[in-house]
Structure prediction request, 118 residues.
Amino acid sequence: MKSSSNGGLVYSTDGGRMCPACRRPLGECACKAQAAPKGDGVVRVSRQTKGRGGKCVTVVKGLALDAAALATLGKALRTACGSGGTVKDGVIEIQGDHCDRVMEELGKQGHQPKRAGG
Prediction:
C-alpha cells in the first residue's frame, strides 16, 4: 500500500475508493452533501449551435438546484417542449430552439428566467 505525501490513506479494500477531502468511502462522502448548489440566482436561457454540427440546442444555466431537483426540472422542460435533452454539470440542454417555451415553463414554476445571447 502506498501512502500519499500528506500521509493519508489512498485506497482501502474495506470501503473501496476514498474521498480525498473527508477521508470516507465515496458512498458515504460528507463533502457532496454539504456542497451548495451552483448558481447566481439568475436563470439564463440561450440557444447554442457551437460544437454540435450546426444543430441547435436550448441551454438553461444558473439554476440553484441540487442534482435531483435539476433532473426533475429537466424532465418537465423536455416534456413541455416535446423533445429530448440532457442535464450535464448543472446545465439543462434541450434539443431544438425552444427558448420561448422554456422561458414560459420556468415562469410557471416560479423562476425568473432571462434570455441570453441574442
